[in-house]
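Below is a filled-in request sheet from our internal design queue. Each sheet records the structural input a requester submitted and the sequence that came back. We keep these sheets so that new team members can see what a complete request looks like end to end.

REQUESTER: design group, bay 2
PRIORITY: normal
MODE: inverse folding
CHAIN LENGTH: 242
BACKBONE (tokenized):
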């Protein structure tokens, strides 16, 4: 389907936007995701994806590492910088298996990655896990505060020294967890369990990538020092100087 058809989207279902230039892979993904109950839209280029996003906000995006026009990194970074789109979870589809390539993708805005070749069942499992992790939870307490940082779980807004802080969905969940347990040190594996969930398949080093993103987002308000590294133990949120 083309971006011009997106106005017919049934938003009572989760919608997936596939950004992939190889037609055979797009068709395979479209078939399997539709069969799994998702509403699916395809974009063969970054430009087509941007046209779609100008009209409709999908529940999740699958983005190929190599795209023929605007690079995948440019696309994902532009999405994460747009306040209306930054909450969209992004899974990167990549043939690159080296750790530095995966980290580059995560640094560029992806929330998870799947290495080609992959099974449709694994991909759908990852999509469902990411959608569960990013879904708002009504039972959460509304506002948590430590020092100059406040997190509103209902509106998904973060402020630091009274100024709004823009965070991606994973960084938001990470900060929300840490702010509910101030001063407590969590190892990478504990954070993966509590923030990502125990049904994910990502490496512990992924936590470091999102901690760096969170610190960067808090730099402008001079609150980045509050995300502290405890050597050989993990991370904590503290209003005390290290």
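RETURNED SEQUENCE:
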């Amino acid at each position: 389907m083309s971006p011009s058809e997106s106005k017919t989207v049934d938003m009572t279902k989760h919608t997936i936007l596939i950004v992939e230039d190889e037609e055979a892979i797009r068709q395979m993904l479209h078939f399997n995701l539709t069969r799994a109950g998702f509403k699916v839209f395809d974009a063969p280029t970054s430009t087509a994806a941007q046209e779609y996003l100008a009209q409709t906000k999908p529940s999740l995006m699958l983005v190929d590492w190599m795209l023929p026009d605007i690079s995948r990194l440019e696309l994902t970074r532009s999405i994460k910088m747009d306040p209306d789109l930054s909450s969209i979870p992004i899974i990167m589809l990549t043939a690159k298996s080296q750790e530095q390539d995966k980290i580059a993708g995560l640094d560029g805005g992806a929330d998870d990655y799947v290495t080609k070749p992959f099974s449709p069942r694994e991909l759908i499992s990852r999509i469902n896990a990411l959608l569960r992790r990013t879904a708002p939870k009504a039972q959460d307490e509304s506002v948590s505060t430590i020092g100059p940082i406040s997190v509103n779980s209902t509106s998904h807004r973060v402020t630091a020294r009274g100024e709004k802080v823009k965070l991606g969905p994973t960084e938001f969940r990470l900060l929300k967890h840490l702010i509910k347990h101030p001063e407590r040190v969590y190892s990478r594996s504990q954070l993966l369990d509590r923030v990502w969930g125990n049904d994910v398949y990502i490496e512990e080093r992924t936590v470091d990538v999102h901690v760096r993103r969170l610190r960067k987002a808090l730099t402008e308000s001079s609150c980045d020092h509050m995300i502290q590294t405890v050597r050989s133990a993990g991370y904590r949120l503290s209003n005390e100087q290290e």
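SHEET NOTES:
- Residues 1-12 have pLDDT under 50 and may be disordered.
- The first strand starts at residue 15 and ends at 19.
FILED BY: M.R.
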